[in-house]
Amino acid sequence: MDKEYDYVVLGTGLKECILSGLLSTNGYSVLHMDKNSYYGGESASLNLNDLYNKFKGESKAPAELKLGSSRDYSVDLCPKLLMACGNLVKTLLSTKVTRYLEFKSVTGSFVYKQGKIHKVPASGGDAWRSSLLGMMEKYRFKTFLDFVIQYNHEETKTWPNKMDCKKVTMEEVYKYYKLGENIQEFVGHAVCLYLDESYKKMPAHETLERAKLYANSVARYGNSPYIYPVWGLGGLPEGFSRLCAVHGGIYMLNKPIHKLHYKDGKITGVESTDENGKNATARAKNGVLADPTYFIKDGKPGAEIKQEGQVARWICILDHPIPNTNNADSCQIIIPSTQLKRMSDIYISCVSYCHNVAAKGHYVAMISAQVKATNEAEAKKELKEAYTLLGKTKAEFFSINPVYKSTLKDDGKLFITDSYDATTHWETTCREVLAMFKRMTGKEVDLSISPDKLGEDE
């Protein structure tokens, strides 16, 4: 440990593990440490007994609930689905981490409108069958979708009415296709996965690329654009950890961090305890990457990070599918902020025993959202509309998690990832990871590989 590395990484959450894997495969030497004795950090997966111990201080689930064996559960603390053609899948493929994982498609993608759940239309057939759309809306949306699928900014003949979509706003594109607020709502929030309405004032190109990604991802599996690892997300950080180790990275769990060393305003090393129980310093030539929990002192954020709101997460174990989802064994439901007059969307994810994350006949649903409240009772009130969609629950686990962001500039060489957001997909997280890699190394991650290779032998 008492030597120099290109990078020292603190924390084994998925973001940190992806980055250590990318760093090692690009030829950098990496020391990856975690103060915990397990992988995953805030994105860990827990069995049923560990879940009860974490949230309720109990050693195991009450027998009368008949939840099944603890080892049959792998409950994600921060569940997120993967877009089938998205950047995380491309990252998994380009690094060959897929050799350690198995995926299964997620059955449904839904959006909430006026108290009801509707399938998100992503094809011409979906549009004609959708209860979300009136007759004229069906035609207009299909016309818009046909444009999105063939859109290519490099070919001006695909531009709408000769409009350069890197210059005109999405608001103008909506207007050209005569798409009303109803269509704009589910396109922006459930298809393009924007967190608020600000995207409408931005150049349309990014939104069109997101819509195209969604449509292409749906086309791969037919029901929804999402896939999910069998046995849960816990395999992802472990897979990237293996990748890092194969390329010379060193991993150390259960390592307390005593001190960060600086010189001339730049971080130079991390002091911990070596295998002999003595203090030792790992020197960091190019920088240190860490998750925000390493800068919380006595329950309060240090100068390196600041809190920007909080996310409530409500884990519910069910013995039935979420009602009105066509008995889907897995799904995502997005409740747009505009439906409930909120500042941000509410997300519901559901996976089940079909993904080997729960006992036979059981489902694990998660409600997550940014909330104003800092106490459980008030936060639950903010999420009550989402909760009523789930039907009867067998067990519940609730938490409110502060969202931290770094206050530092990159010239100090200390890079801190953001806390996980409320979304139930990896797209925002993956954009952060790719941007962080470039900030740390000055290099772009090569994502030229086709997602069609998922499932092929490596």
Q: What brief labels describe this structure?
A:
7-stranded mixed sheet; alpha+beta; 21 strands; 458 residues; 13 helices
Protein described:
28% of the residues lie in helices and 25% in strands. With 458 residues, the protein is α+β, with helices and mostly antiparallel strands. Strands 1, 2, 10, 11, 12, 13 and 21 form a seven-stranded mixed beta sheet that branches. A seven-stranded mixed beta sheet has the order 8-7-17-18-19-16-20, sandwiched between helices. Strands 5-9-6 form a three-stranded antiparallel beta sheet. Helix 1 links the parallel strand 1 (4-10) and strand 2 (30-33). Helix 1 (14-25) packs parallel to helix 9, helix 1 (14-25) crosses helix 13 and helix 6 packs across helix 8. It is globular and about 75 Å long. The model has no long low-confidence stretch (mean pLDDT 92).
| Rg result | 23 Å
Strand segment count? 21
> Shape from CA axes?
globular
Taking the alpha carbons of the first and last residues, their distance comes to 33 Å
Strand content: 25-35%
**What does the largest sheet look like?**
7 strands, mixed
Please tally the helical runs, counting DSSP H or I stretches of 4 or more residues: 13
Portion of residues within helices? 25-40%
Mean pLDDT: 92
Low-confidence runs of at least 5 consecutive residues:
none
Structure classification? alpha+beta
